Amino acid sequence: MDLVRKWVQALFFLVTNGYWNFPLTRGIYQGPLKVICSPGLNCYSCPAATSYCPLGALQQLLGGIRLAIENGQFYVGFYVIGAMGAIGSFVGRMVCGWACPFGLFQELLHKIPSPKFGIWRPLRYMKYLILLFMVILLPLFAVDAFGLGSPWFCKYLCPAGTLEAGFPMLILQPSLRANLGLLFYNKVFFLVFFLAWAVLASRPFCRTACPLGAFYALFSKIKLVKLRLDPEKCTHCKACHSVCPMGVHFNESPEDMECISCLACSKACNFNAITLEIGGVAVTNQRPCRPEKAFPQHQ
Amino acid sequence: MTPKKKKSRTQKIRIAPFVAIFIFLVCGAIGISLGEPSRVLEQARQVCLSCIGIG
Amino acid sequence: MRTTSLFILVCCISFFIASCGEIPTVAEVGKPAPDFTLVDTKGKTWTLSQLKGQVVFVNFWATWCPPCREEMPSMQRVHTYLPKDTFKMLSILNNDNPALADDFCKKLGVTIPILNDPNGIIGKAYGLTGVPETFIIDKQGILREKFIGPAQWDAPGYIQMLMNYINK
Question: Looking at beta carbons, which residues of chain A come within 8 Å of B10?
Answer without folding.
Answer: 230, 282
